């Protein structure tokens, strides 16, 4: 189903806000075979953008489908306050974006055979805000049975959720557009009368927990108790998630490094989104422990401090929650695979040397961008190396193999590009993961001390009682500024 007229298709790195519309619930289907008997694996893509920006139309899914026997579906969903504004509604209370995603999955179940897809082999995958969305669907009872596998890239829910009934964000929005009234219902009526463009981006959107879509009051606690839907799960991060683009919001970091004496001022601001999920604690309680965990007291070199700051923010915003979700999924019979993308992309020479694999870098390889050509047959926009084209072949194969067989190393039925490094399964005892690069390799227990620090010690410091479950079966078993900067820098 094609998109309505809009921006050019090959738009992976160029967001255009003037193409947005309330009439956004469209999807694209890419297929190498329209025979209803083809029974190909299906992959449904949730785009990134901090749940506030982005469009499915920016991702060229026809490249992976030209290399592999797979059907890909890319969808739009409501963004910003249109998707996640607390409304007080007894049924949805603001999680309408999750309902959009669930509706797309139901459409796939009903129609994908007409495009050669197998509704029993549906994998949802997404990056950044889309990765968040994937993890929310893995936690939601509303989508149980609608997909078999899931992939979260650089985004897992665990930070920044609103509680059901908390309408403070809605009231703040109402005040900003002159909709303050004595009655909440009147306030909502006033908001509904406003143009959508006036409501979208006042605040970073947050999913609402405690309702029909996300019954648990505390998603972080839900992962600790290992109560998630039982699906195969592949998930991971890049080595420097808090890299070039994210550092744009921390002006104290420069090419010369970071003055260590500034950390007590910087960290309370940067850790607030993490601390806010612990209402009994205060961010001031963890600032010094964080410094002690990551900084050598005998090394005040600004370059060292900067590099460690990037690592601690990468772990805090991305890696720790990913590990927590991997542990929750692995407690079931699910097949789980973790990765860290470590390749420093060659086509962005303007990036400083201290930034390696940045937020979003894996998308180029997973979507096959090194193989794109313009109308003259030359490389489109960027000249990737031959090694990077091989890396792209590997990543497309890993992702499609997982969707097809539940094992990224199992190429049964797939076009064989080259021998793949075996990707070990993540289990609780070994916690294996794959370091993805032009020469990939396996390792275990990614930054183990740091992960225990964020997932166990810090919550205790914030007054949280750590409760772990045994993986019992259940019926339902990060940022806007950074994403905008990524898209701007890669134009």
UniProtKB/TrEMBL annotation:
<protein>
    <recommendedName>
        <fullName>Carboxylic ester hydrolase</fullName>
        <ecNumber>3.1.1.-</ecNumber>
    </recommendedName>
</protein>
<keyword id="KW-0378">Hydrolase</keyword>
<dbReference type="Pfam" id="PF00135">
    <property type="entry name" value="COesterase"/>
</dbReference>
<comment type="similarity">
    <text>Belongs to the type-B carboxylesterase/lipase family.</text>
</comment>
<dbReference type="GO" id="GO:0016787">
    <property type="term" value="F:hydrolase activity"/>
</dbReference>
<dbReference type="InterPro" id="IPR029058">
    <property type="entry name" value="AB_hydrolase_fold"/>
</dbReference>
<dbReference type="InterPro" id="IPR050309">
    <property type="entry name" value="Type-B_Carboxylest/Lipase"/>
</dbReference>
<dbReference type="InterPro" id="IPR019819">
    <property type="entry name" value="Carboxylesterase_B_CS"/>
</dbReference>
<dbReference type="InterPro" id="IPR002018">
    <property type="entry name" value="CarbesteraseB"/>
</dbReference>
<feature type="domain" description="Carboxylesterase type B">
    <location>
        <begin position="18"/>
        <end position="454"/>
    </location>
</feature>
<dbReference type="InterPro" id="IPR019826">
    <property type="entry name" value="Carboxylesterase_B_AS"/>
</dbReference>
